[in-house]
Design goal:
With 243 residues, the protein is of the alpha/beta class. The protein is built from eleven helices and seven strands. 35% of the residues are buried.
Length: 243
């Protein structure tokens, strides 16, 4: 535990230890978000199918469930810092899940280039040393896909306050996300900005308000693709080749 505690502060170890014990309260929200992620991924990965895929920071397995359902890879692997997350993943009994491992948040327990694709879905905003984790993902995989919330705009102070209870400590714009990836030696092949799905917005904000929020987000992004993420929160995603 000594090395782990030097990389991950105790306050975050404690936060994530039982992070998914009450996952039932947010199960539908996480499931909808995972379906949304799959739409982003299909947009940049196309119909590519992989042999081995690693989900880094797999949470309680909602993205894994969608990956399994979509048969994106022959074998799925998961690593997660939270014991409660590992328990939730294993309880799903996903047919293509080869194994789920607890890890220390940085050192990925697999050999070089073992995976065709490694994904980190809404993980980097939680990570104290982002480049250390990305370097490990680059080491173990041939391709990397990441997704983060784009919160470093005009409302970043509000984002910091609202995200702190959930462990959000990093905040991104499309430019800073690309810089983070490229400065880690990853070759960004596609980078995009996506609005939350209508279903997600209505789940979070209600039928009418959610419809209006979705319409505004999508219209603003279409009309002002560079300025909109500075004013409104979106999701940023990128597909990378590992040199």
């Amino acid at each position: 535990m000594g090395d782990q505690e030097r990389l991950v502060q105790k306050q975050y170890l404690d936060l994530y230890a039982g992070y998914y014990d009450s996952a039932a309260e947010t199960a539908e929200k996480r499931s909808i978000a995972a379906q949304q992620t799959m739409s982003y991924m299909s947009g940049v990965l196309g119909k590519t199918r992989f042999d081995r895929l690693l989900d880094v920071g797999a949470g309680d397995g909602n993205v894994l469930a969608e990956l399994d359902r979509g048969a994106l890879a022959r074998e799925l692997y998961a690593i997660e810092i939270s014991p409660s997350g590992i328990q939730a993943i294993e309880a799903r009994r996903l047919p293509s899940l080869k194994e789920a491992k607890l890890f220390d948040g940085y050192r990925i327990p697999y050999p070089d280039k073992f995976f065709d694709l490694a994904v980190a879905i809404h993980v980097l905003e939680h990570v104290e040393h982002e480049r250390l984790l990305l370097l490990e993902m680059r080491r173990v995989a041939r391709r990397v896909y990441v997704e983060v919330p784009l919160e470093h705009g005009l409302g970043v102070r509000r984002s910091i306050q609202s995200g702190r209870p959930f462990g959000h400590i990093n905040f991104y714009t499309p430019a800073t996300l690309r810089n983070l990836l490229e400065s880690t030696g990853l070759q960004v092949t596609q980078c995009g900005v996506g609005a939350s799905s209508l279903r997600y917005e209505q789940h979070v904000s209600g039928r009418v308000k959610g419809f209006l929020k979705s319409a505004v987000r999508r219209a603003a992004l279409k009309a002002f693709p560079h300025a909109a993420p500075w004013v409104i929160v979106y999701n940023g995603f990128a597909s990378c080749e590992c040199g």
